[in-house]
Design a protein that fits this description.
Structural class: alpha/beta
Radius of gyration: 17 Å
Number of helices: 8
Low-confidence stretches: none
Mean pLDDT: 94
CATH class: Alpha Beta
Oligomer: single chain
CATH topology: TIM Barrel
Distance between the termini: 9 Å
CATH superfamily: Aldolase class I
Largest sheet: 10 strands, mixed
Strand order of the largest sheet: 3-2-1-4-5-6-7-11-12-13
Helix content: 25-40%
């Protein structure tokens, strides 16, 4: 299947925002906001439903976002994934609230960034691999790409390699990968990461980070061989951007080869 557009709703302090990913901190210091919407999360969700855009994600960036997230899921039941603070205790609640899948990262690691296989097994038993998305959002490091947790502040011991993807693929339905170093900068995609992921390409994956124009959308499709879907954030006109038109992406998904 060719690359398709997956929409997003990023929530911070209960509002739909676009944020430079690398600027997120626990104390809020240095936060760089590209966009803050006057529209509710539910209105974005309803728009995505009306345009047939399934499989997008709602991400809760910190505290104070649960109410807005629940409203978005209620507006598009079964159409959105939910991430941010997901663990074995609350995952089922979010599925019951209308999410099609739950997205998890930080809970799968200890405080020092060591991956905990037993937690993944627990979550898989609780919700089923078919409703679980693993967020492998990462930063470029000397060894390639390293998964980052805690709003991308903390590097973990998990590296994005074909071997790791093989190891984890049987425990989830999809991978979500933000290229944290370029997220929110509208400066172009991480083409090397896209090529690595596309070269593996064994289960559905969504890439996010750096898309500035429709040319970048084409680059993701070509570099990944159509194996990666993608999310567009700060460049999108509905998020105050000037590089990519939302209606163009809706039409992109309606291409005959997408049927």
């Amino acid at each position: 299947m060719p690359t398709k557009f997956r929409p997003c709703i990023d929530l911070h302090d209960g509002k739909v925002k676009q944020i430079v990913g690398g600027s997120l901190r626990d104390d809020g210091a240095g936060l760089r906001e590209n966009f803050v919407s006057d529209e509710s999360a539910a209105s974005f969700a309803a728009r995505y439903q009306a345009d047939g855009l399934f499989g997008g994600h709602v991400i809760k960036l910190g505290q104070g976002n649960d109410e807005a997230a629940r409203e978005a899921l209620a507006a598009f039941p079964g159409g959105l994934h939910i991430g941010g603070g997901i663990n074995a205790d609350n995952a089922t609640q979010w599925l019951e609230a209308g999410a099609s899948h739950v997205i998890v990262t930080s809970w799968l690691f200890d405080a020092d960034g060591r991956f905990l296989d037993d937690r993944l097994e627990t979550l898989k038993r609780r919700v089923g691999a078919e409703r679980l998305v693993l967020d492998l959002s990462c930063r470029r490091t000397a060894s390639g790409w390293t998964v980052a947790m805690n709003r991308w502040q903390t590097l973990t011991d998990l590296h994005v390699t074909p071997e790791i993807l093989d190891r984890l693929a049987g425990s989830c339905a999809e991978f979500l990968i933000h290229a944290a170093d370029v997220e929110g900068l509208c400066g172009g995609i991480d083409a090397d990461l896209v090529a690595l992921l596309g070269g593996w390409g064994k289960i559905p994956m969504t890439y996010a980070g750096g898309v500035a124009t429709m040319d970048d959308v084409l680059k993701v499709e070509h570099a990944s061989g159509g194996k990666l879907d993608l999310t567009v954030g700060s460049a999108l006109d509905i998020f105050g951007g000037r590089g990519v038109c939302y209606t163009d992406l809706v039409l992109w998904n309606q291409r005959p080869e997408q049927a």
